[in-house]
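Subject: two folds for Thursday's group meeting

Dear M.,

Sorry for the delay on this. The cluster queue was jammed most of the week, so I only got both jobs back this morning. I'm pasting them in the order they finished. Each block is the input sequence followed by the predicted structure tokens. Could you check whether the formatting survives your parser before we put anything on slides? The first protein is the one we discussed after the seminar.
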Amino acid sequence: MPEKFIVPQFIDKEDQILGPITVRQFLIMLVAAFSIFIAYKLFQFAYFLVFTIFVAAFGGTFAFVKVNGQPFHVFFVNVLQTVTRPALRVWDKRHTEAELRAFMKTEVSAPVKVTPHKEKPESSRLRDLSLVVNTGGVYKPEDDQ
């Protein structure tokens, strides 16, 4: 009896560490909290509040928002690649005057195809060969002559 193997399922689902929060989400929020803490120590309170709102929204978006079933950071990278790369690639090779004159002077002649021609066998020879094949080599054409 063949051995049974366990086939892993749900391999595209991320591991959850704290309730419904995944490792990726936890690390993004940890970096956001650390940057907010640094801003608390460096800035005045008004600047700190503006920075905190911006970083919290940015971190929350990257950690928890999904677009078309993909995490937001994958969507964001795709948007950046779409914006930075050209949408249409056109090859524009311009010929010089000398090249155009050279093209106009040369005549393109179609090469003549030479097909190998084999002469048709004589009908008597063909008849003799078919008799040899049909009789299994018993018939000898030399005997007829």
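Second protein, same layout:
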Amino acid sequence: MQLGRSLPAPGGVWRLLAVWCCLTAVAARLEAQQPWDAGCDSCNTQAVGHGEPCAACGTGRAACGTGRCWDEGGWLRGGGTWGTEPTGPGSGLYAPGLYWIGPDSHWRDNCPQLNQYLPGYYRPVYGGNLPRWYVSAEYLALFRDSDRTLPFASLGPDPDNIVLSTAGFNADFQSGVRALVGVQWNDHVRLEGSYFGSYTWSDLASVNNQDPNDLDGTGNLFSPFTGFGNPADPAVDFNDTAVIEYTSRLTNAELNLRHRLLVPPGHFEASALLGVRYMNINESFGYLTAFDSGLTNQMNVETSNDLIGIQLGLLGQWLLTPWYWLDWEIKGAVAHNSAGQNTLAELAGDVLAGGRDEDTTSFIGETSVVLNYQFRPSLTLRVGYQALWVTGLALADQNFETSLPSLFLGPARLDHSSDTVYHGFNIGLVFAR
């Protein structure tokens, strides 16, 4: 029996895209249900979101009708029902989304027509108050994809007839939560702390064979310790069962200073990021084989990676409508990695315990694309996709020593040259005040 690589079903990807499209369609429908009122061009109001304020007109509450507007008294929505949202100092305008409100949050004296808020017509973003603080909570599903596949059993003494390898693991998305807390220092600086984890991926793969072998028994599964029977060793080859399993855990924490860049007034904003990033990746890999006699060989490898480094990033934001904007962010960190591995083996009747620790350099790269919809003055829905790439890692399966002399005589080996990609979708809410 041969186990092939199990990939996520194509339908799963289409389902994720369908959920994204449905959420966007629902948000667009909710926005369409809020009627525009041309009478608002003569009152001291503003459409909810990141529109352009009117600062030098009359109060004109009645003129707003059922429009979705701001007024000096608070938030007016549908049928003249006044909300209790907080107001900004002296202005009554408060639009605390994570999109930068406008250059220096300055005011404009004119009152634009409301059709200027429609896509392709509305004016660039000016005025309003920046959020004093904000928190976000997101559901984040990640898929783990390592860079190499290793063989662990062949059928017969043939290295080209591999029936068990790490490709047999069933890779899947794992669910987690990402939380972020931010504080607005001024019009240009924000301090943010974020965390996501603890993610755990695990799986087991096995193969059985009951064919007669050259030892007058059953089982023709050969091990990697002899190069899959070249030459064969009765102490580790001629197995009837082979099993491999792995577990991988990921935790991430960041503290970043975000500085708004000076760009021409318009529908685009950009900010640079400088901070500290910590990441922990721990793994374990187990190997077990059994003979028809009931005897077993087994080996377990555990690795650890503690990464910490300085991080730089860049965020671009495109305002699509007064309530929608798109975020595209890239981040990179050069990190110090305290890597290590520990091996415990019981092979051919001998027991071994050993390991090795080394300091090395790793790189962490991340990119994300997120669609934001501010459906309430203080609430924003976020839906997006992110990819995280980490290099210079000590992965457990890559530190499985297949040379018996090296394993028992030493010195212990540590391989920290592996790469891993984590990617997946996120959906969540931001609350800003």
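Two things I noticed about the second structure. Residues 23 and 29 are 10 Å apart (CA to CA). The radius of gyration is 29 Å.

Cheers,
T.
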